[in-house]
Amino acid sequence: MKRLTAIVPCFNEEEVLPLFYKEIMRVAKCMEKDVEFEVLFVNDGSKDGTLQVIKELHEKDKRVRYFSFSRNFGKEAAMYCGLEHATGDYVAILDADLQHPPEMLIEMYNGIVKEGFDCVAARRVSREGEPKIRSFFSRKFYHVLAKLSQIEVVEGEVDFRLMTRQMVDAVLQMSERNRFTKGILSWVGFKTKWIPYHNVERAAGQTKWSFWKLLMYSMEGIIGFSTAPLAISSIIGLIFCALSFLAIVYIVIKTLIWGDPTSGWPSLACMILMVSGIQLFCMGILGQYLGKTYIEVKHRPIYLVHVSDEDQDQKTEFKATDTEQDGMDTK
Length: 331
Ligand code: UDP
Ligand code: MG
Hints:
By secondary structure, the protein is α/β, with parallel strands linked by helices. It has helices spanning 17-30, 50-60, 75-85, 104-113, 132-148, 165-172, 181-187, 211-225, 228-258, 265-298, 309-330, and strands spanning 2-10, 35-43, 64-69, 90-93, 119-126, 157-164, 192-198, 305-308. Strands 7-5-6-4-1-2-3-8 form an eight-stranded mixed sheet, sandwiched between helices.
């Protein structure tokens, strides 16, 4: 029988996990004729009781597996860990907060099996329950990303999708440290079907993404998948060279014809300020690429696992043999 792995990154989700588990197992029951389920929680260094909740779920249901990080490595690292350890023939990624309705997995599965797609992904068509300003910047970001790179991120794309094993293996070949999964998924290609859905509010708990975190994430996307900013900075440099050349010609001619004593130093000061500003800005762009390259060449692990379900199973096995031996001693 084929297996479907659902990867669920979790960061401080203790409140919502029991609800999530109930919901995904309801879906697993609906699909039990077609696939068996494996739910792979990746605890991304939660500070609350998330790990405890997951351990209890694993204790009573062996379809639940987990990996728990030594600290918070971010959702991207959690998704990568999930993909690396998923054993399914089909692999899904979805959020723990029920904003990605697990029942959509049924439709996604049909898209792959019956319609022959390699990947079925969800696309948010409404952004209710989200601050207007966030939606605005988000939309602008994807617009800029599409312009600057060959990466096509579909409007409203979220990290909720079901993929075939072949596509997962392709994604795993991209082991870069600066991860931008939406870009990676678009880069590997394959036939993707988009299913629209309406945004729902979190079932419980709070969002982990601040505006700043999202801004950093978007920089990751642009720098990771496009070298256009480098080209743009050289073009800006060229334009300013040309402008200054024209200005010099103008000033020389003006001085030769009319003669001109030293005037205009305020404009000179402004120009120096502006040009040095642009230089710093372009150096900053260069620095961003250099920094990312620096991180990349260090080849540090993307995440570190502290405990996993296997450790838990081993421990219980250990305990079981221990008590057996104790029994022998007393005889
Ligand atoms: N998440 C994570 N690590 C982080 C931040 C978030 O694993 O550092 C998980 C989180 O537990 C949730 C998913 O990523 O399952 C999406 O996070 P959230 O719901 O906070 O984001 P939003 O839906 O507001 O974009
Ligand atoms: Mg959410």
